[in-house]
Amino acid sequence: MKAEDYYKGYLVDSALLAKDPHFSQGCDICHKGDKTSTKKESAHKGLVCRPSDNLKTCGRCHGKIADTYGKSLHYTTIGQRQGVMGRFSKAELKTFDKKVFEQSCRSCHASCGDCHVKSPPVSGISMGLIQGHKFVKKDEAKTCAFCHGGRVYPEYTGEYGGTTDVHYQKGMMCLDCHNKQELHGDGQKYMTKQEVKDRPSCTNCHKTITSEKPMTTMAHNVHLGKVSCYGCHSGGQYRNCYNCHEGTGAKSEPGFILGKNPRNRNEVTTLRVVPTVRDSFAKAGIRMAHYDNLPNYWDTPAHNIRKRTDRTRSCDSCHKDRTGFLTRETLLKGGAKANEGLISTPKAISR
């Protein structure tokens, strides 16, 4: 978007006023303010800029969805807290909840409007209305990419890392795998995404591997339960973040890392660097007493899947060259001691 056209993202399409049932009771039903005034200042007195921050606003008509969404991870953002709390003492966790989680992490929660009407501010920048204040059912390039545009979406489209996901090339978008119930919630309050039932899985579509090539069938059978699908089919580098500090953010670098899954040590998978360093929350007085208990690398469903990769073309990529595998030499400098447990060294193949 050109700078001189930026303002257009904040203009309401007047044609919608007569067509969209959301406008049948006027703007003030959601945004408040004084609809009787003809002056901007007084008309905007008491204005609610983000009415869907209060789920009761949308819940007047969409009661069931609003009720379940209030318990979803998109809204509670509790997964961010659960992911890091294992590093804190009890006292530090109380400080984190008060000074960091509520002040920072919770500001990232998505309200209904953030997905269906207007871009949320990411790093202080908003792209404005999705389609002139139209209530959009889905538009993944905007509704999903607004928040997931740092990692997942640009990896999926090939804008980051240079490897376009084969599913994207085939015309698939986010909601072809991630269903509406997953996004809105099912009424149960989950603490992490790993607890969510019926999450997308490669085997939902690829239930069996059939091939005319014996080596392909054998490779899948041999690696079943030992290597994740991503471990072989991630097309290449994806975004890894480093050196996160409260208030200043983190820096990112492309990379491809293989190692033991911290949630299942029997499986080798793609790992992504999570940017929490020892002094990430020092500004809030948190030193992370149990920093070494959790790794800095976590299993990641890389969204750059390809049918053929260096690892599917040759066994030597892993078993001889050991390309991409985490080693003691490549471990994050100053990282948690738990990182050492993720090192996996593929066995050499006897020929």
Can you offer a commentary on this structure?
- The model has no long low-confidence stretch (mean pLDDT 91).
- The chain is built from 18 helices and five strands.
- It has 351 residues and is α+β, with helices and mostly antiparallel strands.
- The strands form two sheets. A three-stranded antiparallel β-sheet has the order 3-4-5. A two-stranded antiparallel sheet has the order 1-2.
- The termini are far apart.
- It has helices at 16-19, 28-31, 40-43, 55-59, 63-69, 73-76, 78-84, 90-101, 112-116, 140-143, 145-148, 152-157, 166-169, 180-184, 214-223, 229-233, 310-313, 316-319, and strands at 238-245, 249-255, 257-261, 264-273, 297-299.
Order of SSEs = HHHHHHHHHHHHHHHHEEEEEHH
How far apart are the termini? 57 Å
Major sheet: order of its strands?
A: 3-4-5
Net shape: globular
Quick structural overview:
Helices cover 28% and strands 9% of the residues.
Topology:
Layout (H helix, E strand, L loop, with lengths): L15 H4 L8 H4 L8 H4 L11 H5 L3 H7 L3 H4 L1 H7 L5 H12 L10 H5 L23 H4 L1 H4 L3 H6 L8 H4 L10 H5 L29 H10 L5 H5 L4 E8 L3 E7 L1 E5 L2 E10 L23 E3 L10 H4 L2 H4 L32
Antiparallel strand pairs: 1-2, 3-4, 4-5
